[in-house]
Amino acid sequence: AELATYDEVKLRLKGSGTLQDGLPLHISASFFSGFAATLASSPFDVVKSRVMGQPVDAAGRGLFYRGTLDCLAQLIQKEGARSLYRGFWPNFGRIVPRVTIIFVALEQLKAKFG
Fold first, then answer.
1. d(CA 18, CA 57)
2. Cα dihedral angle (41, 44, 46, 47), rounded to 10 degrees?
3. Best exposed site among 48, 59, 77, 96 by fewest CB in 10 Å?
4. Weakly modelled stretches of the chain, pLDDT under 70
5. CA 114 to CA 108: how far, in whole Å?
6. What was the pLDDT predicted at 114?
């Protein structure tokens, strides 16, 4: 999803004349790609953390959730859909720099080596 988003945003920014090909375009497209990746992955991270962090009984079964979908349903029902984005900004701070470094380095390597 990151690569597809990066390519699409880069194409649209360049096509609209907002930015020309170069470092500002690559950084901007990377930023938007990282934001989209964070937006898409945050609910999965929250559910995974809740399922993995719950206490278990003697048989190893979770005491709060029967599984991923049960956790998702309970979160939405008890805490609202916004609860799926808890920890969004720390995730954003982790994902965006990584995506930016990867795509800027990729573009620089493409420019240098074709």
1. 57
2. 180
3. 59
4. none
5. 9
6. 81
